[in-house]
TrEMBL record:
Residues spanning the membrane: none
InterPro entries, A to Z: Aldolase_TIM (IPR013785), DNA_rSAM_put (IPR023874), Elp3/MiaA/NifB-like_rSAM (IPR006638), rSAM (IPR007197), rSAM_sf (IPR058240), RuvA_2-like (IPR010994)
Superkingdom of source: Bacteria
Keyword S-adenosyl-L-methionine: yes
Protein name per UniProt: Putative DNA modification/repair radical SAM protein
Signal peptide location: none
UniProt-recorded Gene Ontology molecular function terms: catalytic activity; iron-sulfur cluster binding; metal ion binding
Keyword annotations from UniProtKB, A to Z: Iron, Iron-sulfur, Metal-binding, S-adenosyl-L-methionine
Amino acid sequence: MSQLDLRAKLAILADAAKYDASCASSGTTRRNSAGGKGLGSTEGMGICHAYAPDGRCISLLKILLTNSCIFDCHYCINRKSSNVRRARFTPEEVVDLTLGFYRRNYIEGLFLSSGIIRSSDYTMEQIVRVARLLREVHDFRGYIHLKAIPDADPELVRQAGLHADRVSINVELPTVAGLARLAPEKSAPRIEDAMRDVRAAIDDGADAGRRYRAAPKFAPAGQSTQMIVGADAATDGDIIARAAGLYDRFRLRRVYYSAFSPIPDASAILPLRHPPLMREHRLYQSDWLMRFYGYAPREVAEAADPVTGMLPLDIDPKLAWALRFRAHFPVDVNRAPREALLRVPGLGVKAIDAILAARRWRRLRLADIARLTASIARVRPFLIAEDWRPVALADRADLHALVAPKREQLELFAA
């Protein structure tokens, strides 16, 4: 490991970090260096972990401090028994990389995670040192997201939150049974205790900020978590219930879902194939329903198949729920409250806000709704407009086939 140069380390540890999905960045305190002090900014368009059209990951420098680990979690490519090339940064190297990339306008912030080396406390100390050097020595004002280690001393996690915009602690798997089977060295109660401590520190920091202007901020962008989908036997219903519980108890900013990916030299107890990536997408859609559309967790789970507990892959959860509960439809777009309009498949929050604004002045027709949605054919069975009422369409037995997206073979060289 000592023979690797910085470029080789970066290649290894940036690639090893790709399995962690929970590195979006939003909602933090605005900071900038416009006054000539410090380096970096969190203003402007905002910082987000995103993908360019050609697949490049942009905005955040997303790396591991090291991919060495004393744990042997079955699903992790960096586990102790894995046959992968190892590398390790020093805190100073991470700082130099972050500042160098920022000055070249490659990044706007840092996402830093790590395997566990020596002990949880030692590793957390190294992570905190990176953030402290950036903030206190170099006055870096860009975005910092730190991955906290649940088994580390709570004081170290508290220090991380004083320097980072966001702190995340991964629950790893949706169920306690799955965690015990695939990561026996990790403890679900300890993970939740650490998340509870972070939540309490965020609340204390917010309360102190209201009382004292100079009070230090603690993780102003909140905390998030990630769970792996498809590595254990958890159903989509289990995952939805778990996510809802985490949102409720810890007021998380986000729950991220990462589809399990088969790894080299995998354990025999892991699945041989990865789950459909569409399953991950449907879980994100179900997450959106709970966070922005007013669906209760129980209602989102009702969109899943009652036998298998899995969300349908061919249609989104909102449409699946509407097909199962047709008694709630059709909805009159000229009279229904916002809560009812949010249940109409194919209508997003912005479209509904436009409907509510427009109907104050005139009665809306089907053509008006068509301008607000990508597929009016999917919306028609579920709404009533000034010139439209789905008398026969809403009760058709083959409605699923009529509103489900048509599968098409994409052409590589299509115009």
